[in-house]
Amino acid sequence: MLYVVIAFLYLSLLFYLLFGGADFGAGIIELFSGRSLKERTRLLTYQAIGPIWEANHMWLIITIVILFVGFPEIYTLASVYLHIPLSLLLIGIIARGTAFIFRHYDAVKDHFQKVYNLIFVYSSFMTPFFLGILAGTAISGRINPEATDFVSAYLSPWLGWFPLSVGVFTVVICGFLAAVYLIGEANNNEDRDLFRQKAFRMNILTVITGGLVFLVGEWEGIPLFTELINHPVGLAALVLATLSLPVTWLLLKKKKVYWPRVLVGFQITMILITLMASQHPDFIVLQNSTISLENAAAGESTIFALGMALLIGSLFILPALFYLIYSFQKQPISVKKPLKQ
């Protein structure tokens, strides 16, 4: 049952990155759109994510619950030594959700709309950035449980080039996801061409920032590349993700809609498998030790109860969630004017 719980943990992380990441990416795309494009991009992204944006955080909640119940040692370490980036992550989620509601449902349309828009786009950047920082810190070996001062214990672990590079990489991934997904949401060729251009640019940035993560890791003495090439599963996942890139570019150039979405989801899945496999069995790397999910698991009875709850709950929750996504995807999007370059 332990491996059932671990599978749910990793699947929750993957789904949050795929669905929640595309959600955040919509705000990132809006942030980096020109002034003349912001209003049109805003309308399209709202209609695409509006009905289901809040459901995406279900995956994060499941992840937190699994760690809290099933792996209390890991949950404690993260919540103590990474409480600052965790708090900033949660602030970003709350600020983004609040701004999203106010800018569309505020009864009075005044200058505060500009404030809501700014909060939305910058919190859309901030949230995946700190999510990536948390992931980068967890595998960097920078956490020191024996630290005695505030800076060493609570700032130094995540204020490093490697965690920051992973944060930037996560932001770019979210933007890439959103650009590819939004191609299918547009209802005219000019809009689709615009998002294809954005997808190409974000994909190039994904490759650059992904390479930067490895370079910074080597520079800081984090053997990420060495561990990767020594693990056949991680290496195979990285090769598959790399080989799928030219196929994605070709399909985008041929103006396909469905298969680029599938391939970008596949690439993100392979990237996560690469990271997990290269670190296995470790989940958190400390300065002088490591912690694995197997060693940090709660008692057998707790793991069994948690695993059963996840299995039974998924039978009810997952069909309802995917039907929600399916039903709203069937609604037409009333974008009358194409986006302009």
Structural notes for this entry:
- The model is unreliable at about 335 (pLDDT under 50).
- The chain has helices at about 1-30, 35-50, 60-70, 70-80, 85-105, 110-140, 150-155, 160-185, 190-220, 225-230, 230-255, 260-280, 295, 300-330, and strands at about 280-285, 290.
- The chain starts with a helix and ends in a 12-residue tail after the last helix.
- The chain has about 350 residues and is mostly helical.
- Strand 1 and strand 2 form a beta hairpin.
- The radius of gyration is 20 Å and the shape is globular.
- Strands 1-2 form a two-stranded antiparallel ribbon.
- The longest helix is centred in the middle third of the chain and has 31 residues, at about 190-220.
- Helix 1 packs antiparallel against helix 3 (about 60-70) and helix 1 packs across helix 8.
- The chain has one domain (about 1-330).
- Keywords: Cell membrane, Membrane, Transmembrane, Transmembrane helix.
- InterPro entries: Cyt-d_oxidase_su2 (IPR003317).
- One of its GO terms (molecular function) is oxidoreductase activity, acting on diphenols and related substances as donors, oxygen as acceptor.
- It is found in: Cell membrane.
